[in-house]
Amino acid sequence: MVKTATMVKGTQTTGNSKKLWSEMSFSAEEWEQTPKAVQSFIVALLAQVQKLEIRVATLEEQVKRNSRNSSQPPSSDGPEVEKKKVGKGQRKRGGQPGHKGYQRQLVPLEEVKEAHEIKPQACGKCGHELAGEDPEPYRHQVAEIPPVVVEVEEYRLHTLTCPECQAETRGELPAGVPQGAFGSRLQAMTALLTGRYHLSKRETSEVMNDFFQVSMSPGTVPRLEHRTSEAIAEAVAEAREEVKKETAVHMDETGWREANQKAWLWVATTTKLTVFLIRRSRGGKVVKEMLGETFAGIVNSDRWSGYNWLDKERRQLCWSHLIRDFQAFVERDGQSQTIGADILAQVDLMFAWWYQVRGGAMNRTTFVEKMADVQQEVGQLLRQGTECDHKKTAGTCRDILKREPALWTFVHVVGVEPTNNLAERQVRPGVLWRKSSFGTQSESGSRFAERIMSVVATLKLQQRNVLDYLVEACDAANGERPAPALIPP
Questions:
Q1: Taking the mean position of all CA atoms in its chain, how far away is CA 47?
Q2: CA 455 to chain centre
Q3: Most CB atoms within 10 A, among 88, 198, 243, 366?
Q4: Quick one: average pLDDT of 36-56?
Q5: Per-residue pLDDT tens for 93-148?
Q6: What's the CA gap between 334 and 338, in Å, rounded?
């Protein structure tokens, strides 16, 4: 029975259960004299206590989850989450000594609609009459939008009867004239109001009436969206094919709703191109659709399993996500806390050096040499973590080690970033769209959403005007010509 007591004690491996056994003051002989029924009850009771301790620890960790230790967005943080404190600076408010300041640039005089010469008639101090010229008068400009008058062109299609066969023939619209009631610019603006500025269909029709005195029903808006979607479809398809040829691509995905069904909004972006897809799947087949199965570049992403078909050497895991994982380690007790803190200390060194490399203060060779020790130390700490008594910490460490080469791709490959912040920035407008309109209501709506977001994000990266592009694309569609390319020359 002494052996039984020792064995039972040995099964209590963590937390207060160990403490309970250590606090028991009876000896092995006393335990042996305890009735079997009581022994069974005590063993069962302690097993239940241990289960409850694990359950409580799990729930406490869930309650403590926030944007700093998980993938939750900052907007989901509760009031109890302490915000990052910013130290009080020593500088006074406003412009600093030597700062040139910012002023609105004046429009060149030759571009001004009308210039008014204002001369004082009398001295502001003594009242004496003034005359003369100021070679450099103070210039004050006022910008204004004149009343916008919509131009309506009418095409009167005559129907004439043939004197020979009596057949009636009606004239046809000239090439390039829209079949619908609205022109290219008005159509493009409608698509931009819903697809970029996330106005509802009714709000968009109200804007058209309030700003331009154009009568447009809410039901007309989706029809104009569809036409715009078709006008830009080929250009977006070309951009998607171009992304497959890139050497470095950032990818991310976020939840979406299509016809009130669960879906995902996917993004693949480079420094010059961004493309979106809305699919019902969050699996690797969508990654293959966006990149192609023979993709030869490097993918920057989080640890989501949909990317696992890619070679580890062709991936870069996002360190922003990893930092949150390690912060979660720190907020646990015991060995997990120590391992997390030690890894984060190495991460601080890594980013300090990375910023120097990116800013030109450190060359790549020196960076690679310095990072060798960091890579070794982080690897050792992760391996220690696999033996941690906290199951979640051990599991996360094992999962990261499966992709260990993908931690350090940015160290050796020029042009690869250590974080996936680019993709997360690009997907943010989609998140706002989802929150304001609950996604899309049809496959056609999803095609419009992914195409208009691709166009807007890409043109912003290239510093091109979105409205001008959409007008050109709609004009081209009306004239049965291809839309302007999104791929930079």
A1: 45
A2: 16
A3: 243
A4: 80
A5: 766 777 776 778 999 999 999 999 999 999 999 999 999 999 999 999 999 998 88
A6: 7
